[in-house]
C-alpha cells in the first residue's frame, strides 16, 4: 500500500469523481435530519455561506486526519463560534457525521471497511477535540 494513502482523503477523492459539488447533498441531509438548522442559513439564498462553510470544514477534516498543519484548528474556533450562536456541540458534531454519510452514499460499494473504520475513528477524535475546546 502507498505510504501516502489515507482512507479519509481517499473517500473525498472518490466522492469528487462522482459529484462536483457536495454542498446541496450535505445541506439537504443536514436539514432533513436537523430541520432547526435551516433557520441558521436563511440569509444564504445563493448557497455562498454554505459552500464556504463546507469547504473550510473539508479542509479542516483533511488536515485533522492528516498532518495537522493548522487548518484543523478551525474546528476549535468554530466550536466556540457555534456555542456563541447557541448551537449545541452535538449539532456541531452532527455536521461532520452528515458529511461522512453523504460520502458513504456517494461511494456505495466502494465504501470499504477500512474507510468506515477511519471515519469512525476520526469522528470520535473530532468529538473529543471539540469537547476539549469548549
Note down, in words, how this protein is organized.
- It is a single chain.
- The chain has 134 residues and is mostly helical.
- The protein has one domain: Globin-like (Orthogonal Bundle), CATH 1.10.490.
- The chain has 6 helices and no strands.
- α1 packs across α5 (89-107), α1 crosses α6 (113-133) and α2 packs across α5 (89-107).
- The longest helix is centred in the C-terminal third of the chain and has 21 residues, at 113-133.
- The model has no long low-confidence stretch (mean pLDDT 88).
Brief digest:
By secondary structure, the protein is mainly α. The chain has helices at residues 7-16, 23-33, 48-65, 73-84, 89-107, 113-133.
